[in-house]
Design goal:
CATH class of the largest domain: Mainly Alpha
CATH superfamily of the largest domain: GntR ligand-binding domain-like
Oligomer: single chain
CATH architecture of the largest domain: Up-down Bundle
Organism: Bailinhaonella thermotolerans
GO molecular function: DNA binding; DNA-binding transcription factor activity
Keywords: DNA-binding, Transcription, Transcription regulation
Helix content: over 70%
Strand order of the largest sheet: 1-2
Shape: elongated
Order of helices and strands: HHHEEHHHHHHHH
Domain HTH gntR-type: 9-77
Number of domains: 2
Distance between the termini: 62 Å
CATH topology of the largest domain: Four Helix Bundle (Hemerythrin (Met), subunit A)
InterPro entries: GntR_C, TF_FadR/GntR_C, Tscrpt_reg_HTH_GntR, WH-like_DNA-bd_sf, WH_DNA-bd_sf
Number of helices: 11
Radius of gyration: 21 Å
Length: 224
């Protein structure tokens, strides 16, 4: 019995390692549904019970989320990202916003130094969509467009750890932004990001840091 138990445990560990590797490699992006239990069983060459145990272990670690009737979805790209997500969920909005400021200011600096022309094309297109969303007056559409722009700025810094940490602030960022904007898109709440994007294009790291720090400090002041 002990030998069988050890063999089963080893198989589960192998399943966990293989699933973790697929997630880390981006085969199943954050938010996507992973293959079904029978599919994983065939893919990994192990029994469904072994797959089930491996999936549950990764769900407990915060990488996966099991949704009854819908499937199993990727919640985070690593155990670190899963831990950050849980910690953010338990934090005050001010704490989350202060961490967001630290990450976005560093991202602005990195993007100004390391952005590519492909990055700039994405940033300028995202900025245009953000402006269109604001003009249209749709709060939810604007929130998503704004978050997308900041995600692309972080990616343009070309720091994978920074990008992973920032991704796990997504829900907190949306919450603080909705609170800042309120129920309608009023002119006095508009934040111009064109200067930030211009600074990144000009590779002006100091200017990019200044712009990012200013609007985030204003958001923090608005929470008081």
């Amino acid at each position: 019995m002990a030998l069988q138990s050890a063999q089963r445990s080893a198989l589960v560990d192998q399943v966990i390692a293989q699933l973790r590797a697929e997630i880390a490699a981006g085969s199943w992006p954050v938010g996507s549904r992973i293959p079904t239990e029978p599919e994983l069983s065939a893919m990994l060459g192990v029994g469904r019970n072994t797959v089930r145990e491996g999936v549950r272990a990764l769900a407990h670690a915060g990488l996966l989320e099991i949704r009854q009737g819908a499937g199993t979805f990727v919640r985070a790209a690593s155990e670190l990202a899963g831990a950050v997500r849980r910690r953010v969920a338990d934090s005050e909005w001010r704490e989350a916003l202060e961490v967001r400021r630290a990450l976005e200011v560093e991202a602005a600096r990195g993007a100004a130094s390391r952005r590519t022309e492909a990055d700039m094309a994405g940033l300028e297109a995202a900025l245009a969509r953000r402006e269109q969303a604001w003009s249209g007056g749709d709060v939810e559409r604007f929130v998503e467009a704004d978050v997308r722009l900041h995600e692309l700025i972080v990616r343009a810094a070309h720091n994978r750890l920074l990008a992973d940490l920032y991704a796990d602030l997504g829900d907190a960022i949306r919450t603080t932004l909705r609170r800042s904007v309120g129920e309608g898109l009023c002119e006095d709440k508009y934040v111009d990001h064109s200067r930030l994007i211009a600074a990144i294009r000009a590779r002006d790291a100091q200017g990019a840091v200044r712009e990012a720090s200013e609007y985030l400090s204003d958001m923090l002041d608005g929470l008081d």
